Amino acid sequence: MAELHEAQKLLGKAMNIIYIPLEEPNVEQPVEEKTFETIMDEANQIFYISNQDSHSITQWIIGDYEPRNIYASIPGRPGNSSAQLFYPQGITLDRYGNLYTADSMNSRIQQMFCSNSVFGITIAGTGQTSTTSNELSYPGNVAFDLDVNLYVSDTFNSRIQKFQRIR
Questions:
Q1: How many CA atoms lie within 13 A of 42 on its CB side?
Q2: Are 138 and 105 in contact (CB under 8 A)?
Q3: Counting Cβ atoms within 10 Å, is residue 25 exposed (0-12), middle (13-18) or buried (19+)?
Q4: For the stretch 83-112, what's the b/e string if a residue is b when 16 or more beta carbons lie within 10 angstroms of its beta carbon?
Q5: Contact 71, 54 (CB under 8 A)
Q6: Are 76 and 24 in contact (CB under 8 A)?
Q7: Does 163 score more than 80 pLDDT?
Q8: Left (φ > 0), alpha (ψ -120 to 50) or beta: where does 148 sit?
Q9: In the chain, what are the domain boundaries?
Q10: What is the CATH topology of the domain spanning 2-15+79-163?
């Protein structure tokens, strides 16, 4: 139970959701829902924006006037190939600077477009909605712990999935 609570804290912090207490003192509820997520790579001064409605992730270098990269084959067109996204939600960076996103409608977690590549790599989920332990149903957010284990909020399965780092 303590591990689940820690995973919930990691995901909540990563999602940057505003909570307000309800009448019961130990119950909280989100009050804001966004169609985008953001993350900042402070070391490299790069800002990433995950935009569900355009099915893309945009990279901005702080100080530039235009986006540097758009991670999706054609922004505005959803898809399920390794070069496309379909309602990307939560995004995170691992300690090595690799970008990951919860590709919600494709029920998968994508490591996004390594250097010199136009394709993402599916690292969790199979692209099929299911309740089995290796599949997801509308993943909403992603986070890593200090050991680089991946946590995924598996929205429609009402669970948080932990995918251990392969050593």
A1: 1
A2: yes
A3: exposed
A4: ebbbbbbbbbbeeeebbbbbbbbbbbbbbb
A5: no
A6: no
A7: yes
A8: left
A9: 2-15+79-163
A10: Thrombin, subunit H (2.40.10)
* Residue that has been written with the tokens 């009402």 in this structure: 158
pTM of the predicted structure, to 2 decimals: 0.76
CA distance 108 to 55: 14
- Do 47 and 60 form a contact (C-beta atoms < 8 A)? yes
Which band of pLDDT confidence, cut at 50, 70 and 90, is reported for residue 6? low
Q: Is the pLDDT of residue 155 over 50?
A: yes
Phi, psi angles (nearest 5°) of residue 140 = -105, -35
User: Is pLDDT above 80 for 35?
Assistant: no
Cα distances (Å, whole numbers) of residue 92 to 13, 31, 88, 117, 132: 11, 22, 12, 19, 24
Q: Which amino acid is at 60?
A: W
Query: Hey, what amino acid is at 154?
Result: D
**Does position 16 have pLDDT exceeding 60, yes or no?**
no
Per-residue pLDDT, 119: 82
Tens digit of pLDDT for each residue in 139-149? 999 999 999 99
